């Protein structure tokens, strides 16, 4: 299945492997973006995506919400990628499963916290404030 990012760019050939509903209301998408490198070799790549809807209650001031909404839209995405190049085709499924299991063990408890959406959206606001040159609103 080919999927496009919100900005219209192709995400390359990717397969949605799993969706995980978190207690904080977010949904984790687990994507397999592995690609064949040679006849017997694969680059195993895991992509994790979480869509976070912006809410005014996440921000201290309404103008902070407006700045982020104007620049990033009404939803933002948490993304995590991990890859292993040059994996034997015989081992690719096991390696992918290992990447997923490690992510679940190490990251899911943090992402499932009730305050994660709030903290993540605030981090985007602070990134805008610290790096104004990167964002079109401040160009």
Walk me through this protein's architecture.
The protein has about 140 residues and is α+β, with helices and mostly antiparallel strands. It has one domain (about 1-139). Helices cover about 30% and strands about 35% of the residues. It has four helices and seven strands; from the N terminus they run ββββββαβααα. It has helices spanning about 60-70, 90-105, 110, 115-130; strands at about 1-5, 10-15, 15-20, 25-30, 35-40, 40-55, 75-90. Strands 3, 4, 5, 6 and 7 form a five-stranded antiparallel sheet that branches. A hairpin with a 5-residue loop joins β3 (about 15-20) and β4. α1 packs across α4. The longest helix has 15 residues, at about 90-105. The protein starts with a strand and ends in a 9-residue tail after the last helix. Mean pLDDT is about 90; it is low at about 5-10.
- First-residue to last-residue Cα separation: 37 Å
Question: pLDDT below 50 for ≥5 consecutive residues: which ranges?
Answer: 4-9
Q: How many structural domains?
A: 1
Q: How do the helices and strands follow one another from N- to C-terminus?
A: EEEEEEHEHHH
Helix/strand-derived category reads: alpha+beta
- Note the total helix count: 4
pLDDT averaged residue by residue: 90
Please count the beta strands (DSSP E, at least 2 residues each): 7
Helix content: 25-40%
Strand content: 35-45%
Q: Major beta sheet, specifics?
A: 5 strands, antiparallel
Can you tell me the overall shape? Answer: elongated
Radius of gyration: 17 Å
């Amino acid at each position: 299945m080919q999927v496009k990012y919100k900005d219209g760019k192709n995400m390359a050939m990717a397969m949605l492997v799993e969706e995980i509903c978190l207690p904080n209301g977010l949904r984790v998408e687990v994507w397999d973006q592995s690609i064949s490198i040679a006849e017997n070799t694969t680059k195993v790549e895991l992509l994790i995506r979480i869509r976070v809807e912006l809410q005014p209650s996440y921000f201290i001031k309404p103008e902070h919400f407006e700045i982020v909404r104007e620049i990033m839209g009404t939803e933002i995405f948490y993304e995590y990628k991990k890859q292993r190049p040059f994996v034997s085709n015989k081992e690719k499924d096991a390696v992918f499963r290992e990447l997923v299991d490690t992510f679940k063990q190490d990251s899911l408890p943090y992402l499932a916290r009730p305050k994660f959406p709030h903290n993540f959206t605030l981090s985007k606001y602070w990134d805008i404030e610290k790096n104004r040159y990167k964002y079109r609103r401040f160009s």
